[in-house]
Amino acid sequence: MATPPSNTKAQLQALQRDLDQLVQQIQRVIVGQDAIIRGVVTCLLAGGHGLLEGVPGLGKTLLIRTLAEAVHLSFARVQFTPDLMPADIVGTSMLVDVPGGGRQLEYQPGPIFSHIVLADEVNRATPKTQSALLEAMAEHQVTVGGKTRPLPRPFMVLATQNPLEMEGTYPLPEAQLDRFLFKIRVPFPTEDELMKILDRTTGAASQEVKPVLDAARIMAMRELVRAIPVTDSLTRYVVRVLRATHPDDKHAPELVRRYVRFGGSPRGAQAMLLASRIHCVLEGQNISPSVHDVRAIAHSALRHRVILNFEGEAEGVDIEEVLAQVLKTVPTD
After folding, report:
1. Start-end of H helices in 140-265
2. 165-202 pLDDT per residue, tens
3. Neighbouring-strand partners of residue 156
4. Do residues 71 and 212 touch, judged by C-beta distance below 8 A?
5. Choice among 124-133, 214-223, 292-301, 322-331 with the minimum mean pLDDT
């Protein structure tokens, strides 16, 4: 691979410094969870959306709110409930008084018209309301009253859901899950992390987060990330990993052939290739991503795109184990 020009190296170094500052600001509030922080930052830099899954009390909402505080972007939080309506998200036309008397219909934008939208407990709303997010996530626009309205840029949806309490919930359909760049599993903190959380949350001191990036800089960073060179061999590896999640592919391991109904979509390959570029920048080691970077982000990019069959569901097969076998068996050359 040709050596990148010096100005590109300087831009990448500036990108790494800005990302380090952003991560450091988030870590002022969030204890541990470094992989989760990097996953959310990756979604922001890739121009994608993120789905955070974990039991209550792990700081999912706090993490997203802290990210919003660390950037000069507008932020809106929507608590999804069974009685939430699409108009509560995208807005509606209302009668308002006009100067000189009389009334007229005027569009009142909903919270979707923010740079960062937190869809809290997204699986508690009905499919009709969940679908109100779909056009926004896919097209960065909404259609209300027959008129299409663009959303601000950058725009991203960060949704949370609880994997345990399924009563009164509406699981997201596969088409909507596929719109998320990452599905990030939030683990329970370690003993040392719990000690730090208690010290930080029950003491007198409070941590303040300072915004370090604005909209223009984030858009410029997105363009720079996409310009990071990727070798043909790495692209082929990404394609082979994706195809190996399909039970009829020659590289598919035994777990996939036996327990998987549908493999990942082409968006999964796009997510892996783009996220691997960002991972190598966050690591600060290479100019171009490697197989190591792809393997580091593959689970987040594919776990919500690979669908188990009835036998896999009945036997409680863990999708993480399936993906681990995929990464182990797919050749790198």
Report:
1. 174-177, 191-202, 215-226, 232-243, 254-259
2. 666 677 788 888 889 999 998 888 778 878 777 777 77
3. 116
4. yes
5. 124-133
Please write the tens of the pLDDT for every residue from 64-96.
Answer: 888 888 888 899 999 988 888 888 888 887 777
CA diameter of the chain: 74
CA 268 and chain centroid, separation: 13
Question: pTM here?
Answer: 0.86
For residue 124, CA distances in Å to 75, 186, 187, 320 come to 21, 19, 21, 25
- Name, in order, each residue with C-beta under 8 angstroms of 56's C-beta and a sequence gap of 6 or more: 162
Closest C-alpha to 182, from 70, 42, 62: 42
* Residue 286 neighbours by CB under 8 Å, 6+ apart: 280, 293
pLDDT of residue 127 exceeding 90, the answer is no
273: number of CA atoms within 13 Å, CB side? 21
**Strand blocks (E) in 17-174:** 50-53, 71-72, 75-79, 91-97, 103-109, 116-120, 141-144, 147-150, 156-161
Cβ atoms of 26 and 36 closer than 8 Å: no
Half-sphere exposure of 159 (CA within 13 A, CB side): 27
C-alpha–C-alpha distance, residues 106 and 97, integer Å: 10
Q: Copy the structure tokens of residue 314.
A: 């009945």
The domains of the chain, with CATH numbers, are 230-333 (1.10.8.80)
Residues 241, 131: Cα–Cα separation, whole Å: 30
Q: Which token pair is 296?
A: 């580091």
Q: Cβ contacts of residue 205 below 8 Å, gap of 6+?
A: none
Torsion of CA 80, 86, 88, 90, to 10 degrees: 120
The confidence score (pLDDT) of residue 180 equals 92
- pLDDT confidence of residue 250: 84
pLDDT tier at 1, thresholds 50, 70, 90: very low
Cβ count within 10 A of residue 98: 10
Contact between residue 94 and residue 106 where contact means Cβ atoms under 8 Å apart: yes
Residue type, 233: S
- Neighbour count for residue 116 (Cβ, 10 Å): 21
